[in-house]
């Protein structure tokens, strides 16, 4: 019994891993909704190793007012979903940090334990890797030129620059920058999605070069 070609494609195999990584966090809000707190908290604890999980940069699901919601810190304080003050301010560089320990409640909904930028980044990466894995080798050979590295790198830049700016702004506590910019959800979705696309283009080029090299080596034998 022969293995389907798609299962031999490294891009497809990577996409499966990335799909799992980005979709499993959505089980946590579902678990909390059906009162399986052990499962929800376990997923939350696992993903805190990979993401800050800040509430003002995350999406909440299954709240009373809306199935999908985004909140500011003050809105969550008013709804009593987080404390009025950080319970452990010395643990973080930010004066107000509500992340790993706060999962939401029945009123505001339950937090997906990876931030919205991570969802956009890994979702975009998984989607484009899946699409690229379905392309015929001849099509890939036609479009996977050396410029693909340049295009990929340029798509990485918006998130890199925003991340550096954000670190400087928060690290030095520059208060002249509006919070609406720092915590902008739309900015995070766009930069994360572009980063995912850029990384997928770079991986497409890398693996295609590897495939062509193997073909050349076989031809010499």
UniProtKB/TrEMBL annotation:
Family annotation (Pfam families): DUF2085
Record keywords, A-Z: Membrane, Transmembrane, Transmembrane helix
Membrane-traversing stretches: 12-32, 119-136, 148-169, 189-208
Domain of life, source organism: Bacteria
Record-linked InterPro entries: DUF2085_TM
Protein name (record): DUF2085 domain-containing protein
Species: candidate division WS6 bacterium GW2011_GWF2_39_15
